Amino acid sequence: MYDINKVREDFPILQREIYGKPLVYLDNGATTQKPRQVVEAMVDEYYNVNANVHRGVHFLSQQATDLHEASRETVRRFIHARSTSEILFTRGTTESINLLAFTFGEAFVRQGDEILVSTMEHHSNIVPWQMMCERKGATLKVIPMTDNGELQMEAYEELLTERTRLVCCTHVSNVLGTINPVADIIRIAHQHGVPVLIDGAQSVPHMPVDVQVLDCDFFAFSGHKIYGPTGVGVLYGKESWLEKLPPYQGGGEMIKTVKFEKTTYNELPYKFEAGTPDYVATHGLAVALDYVTALGMENIFAHEQQLTLYAMQQMQQIEGMRIFGPADHHDAVISFLVGNIHHLDMGTLLDRLGIAVRTGHHCAEPLMHRLGIEGTVRASFALYNTTDEVDALVAGIRRVQKMF
Ligand code: PLP
């Protein structure tokens, strides 16, 4: 385990007061706070290294390129990919999925084909597939879930047909906290010869991930949800798949040679990285990954599991409390409603107590429809949250309840 008080000192924002109360930041599912190490590394790069990557013979350009490519290696190591050719830098999970939806759609999806997504997907793992299906005349099919927030595996297996081209599923639900049995989902899809994309936006920050052990074909995540900067993310893809996909955007860097008659494309991963990358952000992401690696992803998982369990136990004692999602295999996200109190009222009043939570549909409207609700209040934990903060949340909820 790590020293949480020492860790909190790395995150200056946690010292802030909001409306005269100590900040209790429980909106980590939306974005995490950044440790000094990340911000300072990025400032240092801008002050002392900055030059465009891959294009210069001069010293700074080479130094910036080295940092950028070393970051790719850090990402590779972190998710245990086989090769850096399989690590594509994007702007985030959303862009990673859009990249895949476009390129995979162009290469492999025809009229009448089917794409499977689950009921609990974030809009960014629904809408790009809908757009692609519309373009290609394909159909989006949905893996159902139980009232408890677990995917129905038998129904899933029945949905796999000879027309299924891809399965797209979140590793961890950003609303329910459900940790999905992705290894089984992938194994079953592969038995039918179907590749799988895992949306890792909510898993990578909380648990060790090994893409080779999972055997997923594609895996997407965002830097800003794992203590890194905004504007950078990753699409992992098995080299054998990436080789078969056409480029996404055209421009500099993704080409080998350009002639007006014909352009040839660069090798992996550059074929998918048109234009100047956010090389300062990729460096920031690598520093963030080194930061969590030093603490230990197993330790972070254990800490957050303990915190989530404690929070669930405390919250369940509140009258009228409804917690969504399964009780076990539950990640560091708790979505809830209390009695008839509207989620927006709860969120707004908690904010006056310095407690930052998220309210609404959490970019998962189809899931809200399935649950028959408009929205929830969501508390989501990070490596720096404490049981004192959980106590503050529980006391805050009780206080709001008294006001109604
Ligand atoms: N997928 C899941 C499960 C998420 O929780 C989120 C963000 O909340 C996203 C995708 C989209 O991530 P981004 O906005 O960083 O692209």
Task: Explain the overall architecture.
This protein is α/β, with parallel strands linked by helices and 404 residues long. The chain is 40% helix and 17% strand. A hairpin with an 8-residue loop joins strand 13 (321-324) and strand 14 (333-338). 47% of the residues are buried. The protein has 14 helices and 17 strands. The chain has 2 domains: 4-28 and 296-403, Aspartate Aminotransferase, domain 1 (Alpha-Beta Complex); 40-293, Aspartate Aminotransferase, domain 2 (3-Layer(aba) Sandwich). Helix 3 (59-79) crosses helix 10 and helix 4 packs parallel to helix 5 (127-136). Residues 92-94, 122, 124-125, 170, 174, 199, 201-202, 222 line the site of pyridoxal-5'-phosphate.
Strand content: 15-25%
Distance between the termini: 40 Å
CATH architecture call of the largest domain: 3-Layer(aba) Sandwich
Give the count of structural domains.
2
Number of helices: 14
**Strand ordering within the main sheet:** 4-10-9-8-7-5-6
| CATH class type of the largest domain | Alpha Beta
Helix content: 40-55%
How much is the radius of gyration in Å? 22 Å
- Quick one: CATH superfamily of the largest domain? Type I PLP-dependent aspartate aminotransferase-like (Major domain)
Q: Determine the CATH topology of the largest domain.
A: Aspartate Aminotransferase, domain 2
* Cα shape: globular
Bound molecules: pyridoxal-5'-phosphate
Residue ranges: pLDDT <50 for 5 or more in a row?
none
Largest sheet composition: 7 strands, mixed
| Whole-number mean pLDDT | 98
In total, the number of strands is: 17
